[in-house]
Amino acid sequence: MRSWRKLILEVIAVIISSIIAIPLYITVINSFKNQAEAADLGLAFPTYWRLIENYKEVFIIAKIPQALGNSSILTFLGVIAIIFCCSTSAYIIQRRDNRFFRIVQKMLIAGMVLPISIITTYYLLDTLHLVRTHIGVTLIYMATCYSFITYLYISFFHGIPREMDEAAIIDGIGHHGLFWKVIFPLLKPINATALIIAFMEIWNDFTVPFYLLNTANRFTLSLTVYFFFGQHASEWNLVFADIVMVSLPIIVFYLFLQRYIVSGLTAGAVKG
Predict the structure, then answer these.
(1) Torsion over CA of 51, 57, 60 and 62, rounded to 10 degrees?
(2) Which pLDDT band holds residue 272 (cuts at 50, 70, 90)?
(3) Is the dihedral of CA 193, 194, 195, 197 positive or negative?
(4) Is the pLDDT at 55 greater than 70, yes or no?
(5) Residue-averaged pLDDT of the chain
(6) Helices (H) then strands (E): counts for the chain
């Protein structure tokens, strides 16, 4: 009975995976076709493989190097700021178990639910002269990711005994050294999880750059897809090639670090 149940679940998993894989297949295979064949959005292989031509044309027209640079800067700054702020604040919140910090934890839950308001955010950044700047957008990403990732860190810290802190302090290490030399090296799984989540959130984001970096020389890769589609809507082969080029870095990055996701998310779920 268990074998049949397992077989049925495996068949369901294969079907679901196939449903997810079909759009990916269509995107990749049509990026190698000419304009006429790609317009059919079919599943067949191209009669003539344009392995380089489509990607070379998109690389030049969509200004991929410039967009890649902007996306890389925003992602690097955002990920570093998120990991630094979330890990340090989560450590303090989890270790100082009093009424104030319990209220802070409840506020973090509220922060995960409340949506961002673009209009008020734009006016705030404009007042601070941070519109169309990488620093301003980085602060927005840090604010949007802060609640969820900080909560992940708090859960992880439940699995690190307080006795380790006390032993390090007895050995004469300071508070800063305690975190950076003792605690932070133990955060490898949750750091990798936070890295992937923040990376995907920033790299794939469209809304924030669209409103706050609305100049051509500051377009990110996600914006190139939007504007490239508007200018070349009839050339589906080029549109698909652009989508593949934008998605490839995040897919490769995810494949390298995926083994840390489950361990980072489940750490701290069971105490003791």
Answers:
(1) -100
(2) very low
(3) positive
(4) yes
(5) 84
(6) 14, 0
